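Marked as duplicate of an earlier ticket. Keeping the data here for the record.
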Amino acid sequence: MNKIKKGDSVVILTGSAKKTVSEVLRVIPKENKVIVKGVNTKTSVKKMGNEKKLVTREYPIDSSNVALVDGKSKTPTRVGFKVEGDKLVRYAKKSGTIIK
């Protein structure tokens, strides 16, 4: 079960973008990787007819290098699961708030 989902706000824990807060654009569960907006970007030149265009895109990073941002305290938190009613929901372990 994946703890980080598309649209979640995460903080980067390692690398050159350490402590950057951004949004998850895509999750790749088979490879245990996520694509985060504005992090791990590479720029390349793409030819369009006789014009050259710079194209910037984000590449995947390992999901262990990101942590969910707690909605209450705005700090990194771990994610837990609990049953509420008849549904399994994610919650922030630091504050106990339910993650939508």
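See parent ticket for discussion. The chain has a mean pLDDT of 93.
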